């Protein structure tokens, strides 16, 4: 498991996601203050949202003032949320894993409880028990 | 700008991404140790990679030993990389923003340098200067 490479890939993915959130934020602001510019940016970004860097690059040629605004917003967003992310995702994944493990244990337990005769009165056929639980 | 909501959405997106990285890691391991199981998991996950939690939920019904392995791997991944992410993404976005601003300044400067006659000999027509820079 190459943790260093995974960390790099994750940071890159996060950077695209922050750019997406910045564009979304600027779009919400424009929808209230400048509907024509909202419409323009909405159309411009619609098919480019997958690659934030390329979108910003192109936007600097088309409307530099909007590009400058978006990169400022994404800097504010990342500075505002980054420090909270480690605890949030560690806790999120640990809780989710605990939930999956608990459900799995419950299924196994119910499986055993629902087939007491197989366990006491006859040889348990685990293959049958498995398929009857689905 | 609702930073709290953005932090929550980002953590959720990251959780899906960690699950994707865990599946990718287990697939790489299986390709070396158990090709038939690699093929099975590869086919199983192909159209479900967008929603990691739903994939794990379903995998617990199909092959619980693989599901347990994937959630263990994603817990190891998140514990291994989470603490480094804040600095990586803050630095990444700041450097990217600096690059975009520098390029923008260079374009503006070249624009002014490439039209000296317009500035000294005649009234500068900024519209013309803008269009000639593209």
TrEMBL record, chains A, B:
Coiled coil: none
Gene Ontology CC annotations of this record: carboxysome; cytoplasm
Tree of life domain: Bacteria
GO biological process: carbon fixation; photosynthesis; ribulose bisphosphate carboxylase complex assembly
Primary site of residence: other
GO molecular function, one term: protein folding chaperone
Compartment(s) where it occurs, according to its Swiss-Prot or TrEMBL record: Carboxysome; Cytoplasm
Family matches, as InterPro entries: Chaperonin_RbcX_sf, Chaperonin_RcbX, RbcX
Positions with biased composition (Polar residues): 112-125
Swiss-Prot/TrEMBL keywords: Bacterial microcompartment, Carbon dioxide fixation, Carboxysome, Chaperone, Cytoplasm, Photosynthesis
Functional description taken from the UniProt entry: An RbcL-specific chaperone. The central cleft of the RbcX homodimer (RbcX2) binds the C-terminus of an RbcL monomer, stabilizing the C-terminus and probably preventing its reassociation with chaperonin GroEL-ES. At the same time the peripheral region of RbcX2 binds a second RbcL monomer, bridging the RbcL homodimers in the correct orientation. The RbcX2(2)-bound RbcL dimers then assemble into the RbcL8 core (RbcL8-(RbcX2)8). RbcS binding triggers the release of RbcX2.
Domain text: The homodimer has 2 functional domains, a central cleft essential for production of soluble RbcL in which the RbcL peptide binds, and a polar surface which plays a role in correct RbcL subunit arrangement.
Similarity field: Belongs to the RbcX family.
Protein name: RuBisCO chaperone RbcX
Species of origin: Richelia intracellularis HH01
């Amino acid at each position: 498991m190459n943790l260093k490479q995974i960390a790099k890939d994750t940071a890159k993915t996060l950077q695209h996601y922050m750019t997406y959130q910045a564009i979304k934020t600027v779009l919400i602001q424009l929808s209230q203050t400048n509907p024509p510019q909202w419409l323009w940016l909405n159309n411009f970004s619609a098919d480019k949202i997958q690659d934030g860097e390329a979108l910003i690059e192109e936007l600097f040629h088309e409307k530099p003032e909007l590009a400058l605004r978006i990169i400022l917003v994404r800097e504010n967003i990342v500075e505002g949320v980054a420090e909270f992310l480690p605890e949030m995702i560690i806790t999120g994944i640990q809780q989710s894993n605990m939930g999956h493990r608990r459900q799995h244990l419950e299924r196994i337990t119910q499986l055993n409880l629902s087939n007491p005769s197989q366990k006491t009165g006859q040889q348990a056929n685990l293959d049958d028990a498995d398929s009857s639980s689905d």
